[in-house]
Amino acid sequence: MDDNVRVRLETELATNVLTLANRMHAAAHKISSSIPLGKGGLVHVQQLFLTAFWFKSAEKWNESWHALGRAVHAANEIGMPPSHIS
User: Fold this and answer.
1) pTM of the predicted model, to two decimals?
2) Among 11, 31, 32, 78, whose CB has the most other CB atoms within 10 angstroms?
């Protein structure tokens, strides 16, 4: 993140960007947990995948693996066909 953007965000929101990222992640997790699998559509699958990526970037490997599993399960629930690598 550009330093000017970071400073502006931290000043306007009166918090540092890491705290803000953690708050946003917690809010997304809370909302996502309220959506039954198969009912959130592609947006829910994307959110679950991004959660896995967020955990990976925070070096939370187990959490990342489980979030990725939830994303795959949600994709299957909405009928997304598995990709075949040939």
Assistant:
1) 0.70
2) 32
